[in-house]
Amino acid sequence: MPVISRLISPILRLAELVFAGIVAGLVGVYLHDYTRASGLPLGRFIYAEVVAGISLLLGLLWLLPFASSFTSWPVDVFISFAWFAVFGVLVHWMRTGTACQGDTFAWDQIGFARNNICGRWRAVEAFSFLSAIVWLVSALVGLWFVHRERRKARTVHGPYGNSHPRSVPIGVVQLR
Question: Membrane spanning segments where (predicted)?
Answer without folding.
Answer: 12-32, 44-63, 75-94, 126-146
